[in-house]
Prior knowledge:
The structure is a homohexamer. By secondary structure, chain A is mostly helical. Chain A is built from 7 helices and no strands.
Amino acid sequence: MSTTATDRPVPSDRTAPERKEPVYAFTEKAVAEKSEIARRFLETRTRLNANVEKANNFLVKRFYNLDHNTYLEGTLPAKTKELMGLVASACLRCDDCIIYHAIQAYRLGAPRAEQEESLNVALVVGGSIVIPHLRRAYELLEELYQ
Amino acid sequence: MSTTATDRPVPSDRTAPERKEPVYAFTEKAVAEKSEIARRFLETRTRLNANVEKANNFLVKRFYNLDHNTYLEGTLPAKTKELMGLVASACLRCDDCIIYHAIQAYRLGAPRAEQEESLNVALVVGGSIVIPHLRRAYELLEELYQ
Amino acid sequence: MSTTATDRPVPSDRTAPERKEPVYAFTEKAVAEKSEIARRFLETRTRLNANVEKANNFLVKRFYNLDHNTYLEGTLPAKTKELMGLVASACLRCDDCIIYHAIQAYRLGAPRAEQEESLNVALVVGGSIVIPHLRRAYELLEELYQ
Amino acid sequence: MSTTATDRPVPSDRTAPERKEPVYAFTEKAVAEKSEIARRFLETRTRLNANVEKANNFLVKRFYNLDHNTYLEGTLPAKTKELMGLVASACLRCDDCIIYHAIQAYRLGAPRAEQEESLNVALVVGGSIVIPHLRRAYELLEELYQ
Amino acid sequence: MSTTATDRPVPSDRTAPERKEPVYAFTEKAVAEKSEIARRFLETRTRLNANVEKANNFLVKRFYNLDHNTYLEGTLPAKTKELMGLVASACLRCDDCIIYHAIQAYRLGAPRAEQEESLNVALVVGGSIVIPHLRRAYELLEELYQ
Amino acid sequence: MSTTATDRPVPSDRTAPERKEPVYAFTEKAVAEKSEIARRFLETRTRLNANVEKANNFLVKRFYNLDHNTYLEGTLPAKTKELMGLVASACLRCDDCIIYHAIQAYRLGAPRAEQEESLNVALVVGGSIVIPHLRRAYELLEELYQ
């Protein structure tokens, strides 16, 4: 809402140069082999995203692109931002988003204790309504970090 | 969350050609002269946005740009999409966003009854927790449509 | 969303007979004299509601009516339901709604400890994001129960 | 919360006369035959609503009735209001509500592009947390508009 | 957020003495035998909680403990607070939480009409977005109160 | 909701030993002298918290204590967790919470770019409804990092 932005070319800016693709310690395939919850999530996402891509909706593609750029290496490490995505997902209570960001953080080398501490922030900020999601998140963590 | 989009150039697509800037029946200045609530909102927004623009944050600019593109003339008229923005803002309960989209819909020629019907959808979907925002929205409508 | 209800006359039902207006221990005027926060809230609400009533919107009036009926004496005492409205308002984080239901519960004779226990449920369910609203609610309780 | 409405008969008002039942291009049965997702949703809803109706709760029936009235033909076409219901459902992230309003908009003749533009408003207002719901909505659109 | 609390020992206070474990009319086992929905919920919860407990996370345990203390007998009866938990769960739209508190209220002797009135508060405060959850809640009530 | 925790003494656990109070680069007083927004927030919080403390509510004190413990130095640095608190606060849209965590992150040495990147995660996850809060957050950042 309520922006003044226009469609003209975006000028160069100071934070842009720092952003770059993170280096993953594990592929999505390796994660899927380790965790059944991850495997089912990744398969469903791939299938549904194929359908979204087929629709070729301009704004959806722009949003996906923007979303992708948000979690690149920057001033903050990609791993930290994926953990922040986990916090946001848990306190907004979206299981798919929780699984996604927990997998991403795992792929970027976050130890289990960092995932738990991130979930603690979400639990305290978001309250007991977060608990059912926390329980399911711990089930995933158990599979990922066995 | 959970996209597969990458940073490569976005290919042409079918919906893009239809989008264009809407034609406003009233300027923001005219709205500010008619409504004190609108005037205060627009002044504060201008002041704070100047500060945001000064920061020149790449992702914020991209988001503002995407946000701007969402409400252009498309398959649905810009006016309808501003009213949809009003519905979303009211059921997510953000006064600033409500004021912004109500002003935009007014500038695009929406009669008061259309604003009220849109707010009714938000009220029924969102429940009585929307009522304090509805009351403030009606105060703005009273000033705009006097 | 997604109902099958139609506009035909609603048949009699088992819960209807039990509902009746509650008896208040205090008038809104008495509350306004005791608490400055309550006074300002009630004045603003009265002014804004006059504006909403002038608009004479059919669905808004129906919703207000339904809302009114929800808190009548029923199987549960009106006081209990106002405290439930307080819980809902606090965990959905609406200051106006919190003030309204805290005033109603006070008018129906709820002691301060019942208001605090209700707010505790909202705090634990809703998390630390509720705390700023809790602080403002305690300011009101201080004025009401001095 | 916080209304002054009472239970007395509601006087006539200006917007009431305009409301009337919309004319659907497709029956729910036809939709269920076209889309498996729709069929499962409609069957579950029918089964659960039968149970709710059996309970014969006065306020639930009043709410269902009010809900029904919100989406009738009015100043805004029923189709537009169903699309608004879709926007509200998507940004509040309720899959059942998304499916319901997408089906309703389809039954009222909304082309797929209008559904996508409505979802875009929800995506931009509501953020990436909406994406999992968007993906599932596109799966339904694919079945409905094949 | 934003507290000034520190880790020193908490001094005695006036509300603490009143809190004590409630007396349940039914065990979880009895509830699971009566309702298939309850049974599946309780089994899944037990399995997932075992996993959470194994992780032995300090803050999660503290939060679970605090959560437990919130619903003890106090100034308000435990039953009333479980019904408040139901209201909060329904207007925040968490099916697991709704099932949990409805079961707890049932175990503490709440008749079905009290559960329905509590859900009505949530429906009116939270709006039609609550309806899918209400439908599922009524399915549970049907099984519990047959 | 739905825990099995009891009131017995909590056994020792592996994450507890690592938690300790963070070392702040700036006092709250120094922050208040630098930023008028911070000063007003801190004054109001102090005044309202005094009132909450006077009430001496057992559960509120326990919750404040738990909240305090969540942001101590642990596996993740306190600064990172305050930035996570900022993300959670921004996507749940609580201005007071945003101001609090932005101040805390500042006091722990977070440069402005880290605050902006954290807010970007909240913006993308939470959508344009976050923008009014982002604007106000940038106003605070401008004062803190001048």
